[in-house]
Prior knowledge:
The chain has a five-stranded mixed β-sheet. Strands 4-10-9-6-7 form a five-stranded mixed β-sheet, covered by helices on one side. 39% of the residues lie in helices and 20% in strands. It has helices spanning 9-20, 32-66, 78-81, 85-116, 229-240, 249-260, 300-308, 310-313, 326-337, and strands spanning 125-132, 135-141, 149-152, 154-158, 162-169, 174-177, 184-187, 193-198, 203-209, 221-227, 268-269, 274-275, 290-291, 296-297. The chain is elongated, with a radius of gyration of 28 Å. α2 (32-66) runs antiparallel to α4 and α6 (249-260) crosses α9 (326-337). The chain is α+β, with helices and mostly antiparallel strands. It contains nine helices and 14 strands.
Amino acid sequence: MTMKAPFFLPFLLHAATAAAAPSQNALRPAGIQAERIHDLWLLTVAICSLVFVAVLVALLLALWRSGRSDATTAPDVASLAAPEPKLKRSVLLAVGASIALLFVLIVADFQTDRLLGRMPLSDAVHIEVTAHQWWWEARYNDPEPGKIFNTANELHIPVGRPVIMTLKSSDVIHTFWLPNLHGKKDMIPGRTSLIRLRADQAGTYRGQCAEFCGLEHAMMAFLVTAEPNDRYEAWADAQRREASNVLSARESRGRQVFMERSCVMCHTVQGSGANAVFGPDLTHVASRQTLASGVLPNNRQQMAAWVTQPQKVKPGTNMPATALSGEELEALLDYLGTLK
């Protein structure tokens, strides 16, 4: 006798997976800026719903009062011969109410924009975010040059501290969108824009390019981890460190493969002599949760697929396929695994 899995098991698994995934939801604000945008959204939905219900009630009332008719019923044109002051008053009342509600929305939008610009910015974290087709470059700026560092596709920010992001694009128009923490902001080549946000709840939040930017637009995601300040500072200190040169024989062989193949032509690994900036900085790639800008989980198997068959994973990507022997690939994966 075989036991069948409960029919609802797939739904439970799907729900568990969704609950474990990083949040990307404008209806669950995790910061003060997102809360203000959320409040404006609720007001807009409430007013639009009220207008919709009023129109629906008016339509149903008109249908109920008109009575039944058929093909032989003569058209009712009595209103052409006699004025209808009651109907005129109703129309004027509806127009007045519409103007008043529209005025409320205009004032609320103006007030929300003012509040977004008034967030205190003392002790802010400064991050320069540059969008590329199809990945994100992040540069953490600091008055002390020795504390500046780069990363890619995954950001960390401290809870309760403001963050000022300078947004740029290196190629086409992109849009930075991190719905749990703020609204959308366009990134136009040759221009610089700013977005100010603050995370008030710890968590990992998913962001996405919100402007169609080419073939792999849908695969241009990023993660933002908001954490207590001490954990953020520990993460930042780790990101500033160069890659370790204490390697096993096979890891050293992997670094040799990295330096002799096309990897070194696009990527930086601090401390290794690889300083190209065409692709993401890989100095700490093993510490990231995902690969290929949120497309793959970061593990050995997916890293191998990304290195050897990037066009299959993300068609159109600028990442070239790297032909490697089995020994070279295993050694390279060992080396990349040390970059934490």
